[in-house]
Design goal:
Helix content is 0%, strand content 49%. The protein is mainly beta. The strands form 2 sheets. Strands 2, 4, 5, 6, 9, 10 and 11 form a 7-stranded mixed β-sheet that branches. It has a 4-stranded antiparallel β-sheet with strand order 1-3-8-7, with no helix packed on it. A hairpin with a 4-residue loop joins strand 7 and strand 8. The protein is globular.
């Protein structure tokens, strides 16, 4: 069982930056793929970024590519999402998610993730 807690959300002006963190419990973090999704009001949850459990491969949605960087720190059981050049359309609740241990399939769809955090609100004012 993996428990995830997000932090780092808040209110920022357009063009600004935020760094989201996801603290994970459990002994299998180093073999767990991590992802970030977001859900804006009235919209479906969408993929933002992910990192393979090996850390060697990262995945990004086209809408955030070049502005967002996902990383992981296995020593501290954390995954982070650095977001730069934020836009009003980035406003959403951001969710951290984790795959099961050793997962090597498609990281872009929500069904790949077995564990989810409660979410953290990101609001970008224009």
């Amino acid at each position: 069982q993996v428990q995830l807690v997000e932090s780092g959300g808040g209110l920022v002006q357009a063009g600004g930056s935020l760094r989201l963190s996801c603290a994970a419990s459990g002994r299998t973090f180093s073999s767990t793929g991590m992802g970030w999704f977001r859900q804006a009001p009235g919209k479906e949850r969408e993929f933002v970024a992910a990192i393979h459990w090996t850390g060697r491969t990262t995945y990004y949605a086209d809408s955030v590519k070049g502005r967002v960087t996902i990383s992981r720190d296995n020593a501290n059981n954390t995954a982070s999402l650095q977001m730069n050049s934020l836009k009003a359309e980035d406003t959403a609740v951001y969710y951290c998610a984790a795959t099961r241990s050793g997962y090597g399939g498609n990281h872009y769809y929500a069904g790949a993730y077995a564990y989810w955090g409660q979410g953290t609100q990101v609001t970008v004012s224009s």
